[in-house]
């Protein structure tokens, strides 16, 4: 029996708060998003970042690589977000949560397989 939980981030961070958490300027956050190092989508009408993608004062280590793989497979930002938060108990709940732990290599392997 599966839970009827909607897949998605547990919390969101707006861009100015992300800049503060990362210790960089807002311009640098915009650059990171443009360059595919970070993912931001409109949530409640404001461009925001899923909080789980920020680890303390950095971006999750494997996130930029996974985002590149997803973009290479033709995913746009919204599709990448859906893929990252698709429920998957084998990845600690979802690919986004798996990236923050010992499942990161499996997340990367699965993202890479999307291109084939």
UniProtKB/TrEMBL annotation:
Alphabetical UniProt keywords: DNA-binding
Protein name in UniProt: Rv2175c family DNA-binding protein
Domain of life: Bacteria
One family name in Pfam for this protein: Rv2175c_C
A GO molecular-function descriptor: DNA binding
Domain Rv2175c C-terminal: 61-115
InterPro entries: Rv2175c_C, Rv2175c_wHTH
Residue stretches making up the DNA-binding protein Rv2175c wHTH domain: 10-54
